[in-house]
Amino acid sequence: MKILIINGPNLNILGKRDKTTYGEKTLSEIDLLLKKQGEKLNVEIVSFQSNSEGTLVDFIQQQSSSADGIVINPGALTHYGFSLRDALADCGLPIIEVHLSNIYAREEWRAKSVIAPVAKGQISGLGWRGYIIALQTLVAELKGESI
């Protein structure tokens, strides 16, 4: 089983950004935790980050045919990334959307996700642990385990 972990704009500077909002872990540290969890679940993890929506779309189009699911933190593209949303919808894979911060407790404009309608679920506000929960949940579902 292969799961794509996709991160959007500005997530490459985690650990430097506002730590009270985004936590102290870097994206590399989160990726390492996900790879370790993937090993425990017997799942291949492919991590990718870009600040460019087009590059994210290209990655999804190139990789989705060999993957079983996607965990994505679209960053600011959550709110206006319509081509990203369409690429996710078109790939036909189960998707879980993740946000480090609680997007519903922040500015009003952050509470609207264009990705949510094409995602199986959304995890918001649990910091880096949200990625692990998303991975565990997605793998369990792909294995046919009940929620």
Account of the 3D structure:
The chain is of the alpha/beta class. It is built from five helices and five strands. Helix 4 links the parallel strand 3 and strand 4. The two termini are 19 Å apart.
Please give the share of residues in helix. Answer: 25-40%
Largest sheet: 5 strands, parallel
CATH superfamily membership, which one? Dehydroquinase, class II
> Helix/strand/pairing class, anyone?
alpha/beta
Number of domains: 1
Key structural traits:
5 helices, 5 strands, Rossmann fold, 5-stranded parallel β-sheet, alpha/beta, 147 residues, single chain
In short:
With 147 residues, the chain is an alpha/beta fold.
Topology of helices and strands:
Layout: E1 2-7, H1 19-22, H2 27-41, E2 44-49, H3 53-63, E3 69-73, H4 82-91, E4 95-99, E5 121-124, H5 129-142
